[in-house]
Amino acid sequence: MATIATAADAPLKDMDEWDDFLTGRYKAGKTEEEFRQYDEQATPGGAGIYRQNHKYQTFDYEKAKQKEYFGLNKGEKSIWEAAEFLNTLVDDSDPDTDLTQIEHLLQTSEAIRKDGHPRWFVLTGFIHDLGKVLCLWGEPQWGVVGDTFPVGCAYSDQIVFPEYFKANPDYNNPLYQTKYGIYEPNCGLDKVHMSFGHDGYIGEVMKNYLPEESLYMLRYHSFYAAHRHGAYRHLMSNHDVEMFEWVNKFNPYDLYSKGHTKPDLKQLKPYYDDLFAEFFPAKIAW
Ligand code: FE
Ligand code: FE
Fold this sequence. Notes:
mainly alpha; disordered N terminus; binds fe (iii) ion
């Protein structure tokens, strides 16, 4: 089994810590003010990953990573193979209590299924974090998880720990620090470069297979500034705003399905075999 990024500056013992941070931050019923207080008292791990994420996610970094990964030249894998590959990413310090990556995916998709949503929505729940395989190809945690945000324009103060952007080289580039930066008003998010991470990557992997609503959920599920705090409407088109209803619909399943009973993979497998066969060929490009 592989542990994740052991680079000296890796702040988290595992990526789930970031998910736990999000769950704590967005605990149901919290006010905006309480979100902020939570950020201030956040766990060192939660704050640490944002410090690096906000420092290193520049416009040029995003462009380089997009070039590296969006050609999908990492080989072909079935959905199960990708999920099992992701599952090799574990927290060695506490292997018994944490959910495996597949269990997080199944808890999300099963919660969606229980609520009677369409099959593509259930499928979206299962695949939404498969982009975290980026970690297994050597990408640092701060380049895989963490809230995503537009690069190439001013940072919203609705992004968690906005003060950390002062360490980002783009912070001192006047071209990137106006409200619209390099973009046109309401140009639409498809024209906007988002910080690199597991969302954009999985959206790219899935773009030929899933409906647009699903692709929005995949691409923007970590774009909390927009889907939870309403920021960046000045870059979004009317169509984006409509589609974000789906992103909002998805978010509670991602955040709050944890902690329910452990899904029984063996029992659930036939359902998911059918589901994958309905949308995908045997193997797809990653
Ligand atoms: Fe995610
Ligand atoms: Fe998730």
